[in-house]
Amino acid sequence: MRKFLILGLIFLLTPLYALQIDNPQYEPLKIHPGDDVNLWFKITNNKGEGVNDIVVEITPHYPFELRQVNPTIGKATISHLNEGESDTVYFKLHVDENAPSRDYKIDVKVSYNIADEERSYEFTKVYYLPVYGIARFQVEVDNNSISPSESKAIKIKLKNCGTGNAKYLSVNFLGNDKINILGSGSYYIGFLKAKYEKTIPLTIYAVPEIDNGIYSIYANVIWVGEDGNFYNFSTPINIKVVKRIYENQPFVYLDSVEYKDNYEVTIGIANRGSSKIRHCVLTLNVNGKNHTKYIGDLDEDDYDTSIFELDNVNGTVPLNVSVNYFDDYHNEYKFSKTFVVNFVEHRESKQNNYWIIGILGVFVVLLLIYWRKRKREIESFE
User: Fold this and answer.
1) In this predicted structure, what is the pLDDT of residue 301?
2) Hey, which CATH number is domain 137-241, 3.30.43.10, 2.60.40.10, 3.40.30.10, 2.60.120.580?
3) How far is the C-alpha of 32 from the C-alpha of 354, rounded, in Å?
4) Mind telling me which residue stretches traverse the membrane in this protein (predicted)?
5) Where are the domains of the chain?
6) Which residues, including other chains, have CB under 8 Å from residue 19's CB and lie 6 or more apart?
């Protein structure tokens, strides 16, 4: 008996409104961040007499923002509804692009007048609209350089930068004819929340004949969104190929030591690697004096030589050769090598020179004596 009394009291205290507002209808049916949402409500007169001056006002909360579709933004009017008659009011909302997944509140206030009464009525209803965030992925690679004929383990970071969670998430990596994926390139991650990331190990291999440059492998990402839809995303991952210059790649050697009027020392340099040597310079230091020669560029398996002319060297002398060169990325390299050479002083050539000078001197003296003798003979004859 008490139960029925309580129910009757609640019924008496609950206001009976003439108008009924149905649950909101909206398009699109699955709302995402950044969408413009068309929203409408059906208003029905359930009272036994006419209802006038009906005003429906909507107050959205984050992430919704009103758009203009009625003369007054956020307000729609119906002039009159007879008993049992219905009409529909329309609104438009914009969803913030950064809204995470959840149900969001809107307040709808309805006010009206009853034709035979001199008072106004109003009531407010609260509704919740679901917003489905969308996962958006960003792929980053750590230490993306590799050299020809090298296999390398790299780390791929898959970041969910979007507003929605990703379910049944999988990633498939695809190489090319220059950069290969070693082992399985497919990874199943499962679930990745918005603003979280996952690190994926990946091993790649660069073929021997690859040139310097940027080569792209691809990551294909597949997942199911919170709205139940399937999504996919493909992005290139740039791999930088650098033909490495190794420490023993340039080879410097003493080609020859010859004596003409002075000593000529020939120094050679060979490129024994698979990458070019750029702007190569040889500097020969002998007894504290530098002799510099510009070689230029050396291709793979190429070599060049330079001749250095040395004066006033004798005995055992160290020849210190310094080499400066660059790679394709303007990185500078330096190394040095010392050769010890025994220079022999050539005195015979000096003595021969003295003999020649002496003979020429005697010849000149004899020529002068002969010329004077002939001059006297000519004078005596006259």
Assistant:
1) 83
2) 2.60.40.10
3) 104
4) 354-371
5) 16-131, 137-241, 250-343
6) 43, 44, 45, 46, 47, 51, 54, 81, 110, 112
> Which one, of 105, 156, 113, 165, lies nearest residue 136 by Cα?
165
**If pLDDT is split at 50, 70 and 90, which confidence band does 8 have?**
very low
What are the tens digits of pLDDT across the range 169-228? 999 999 999 999 999 899 999 999 999 999 999 999 999 888 888 999 999 999 999 999
CATH class of this structure's domain 16-131:
mainly beta
* CATH dotted code for 250-343: 2.60.40.10
Phi, psi of 360, rounded to the nearest 5 degrees: -60, -40
Common-topology check for domains 16-131 and 250-343: yes
Percent of the chain exceeding pLDDT 70 equals 90
For residues 256-264, give the mean pLDDT: 85
Q: Under a CB-based contact definition with an 8 Å cutoff, are residues 51 and 114 in contact?
A: yes
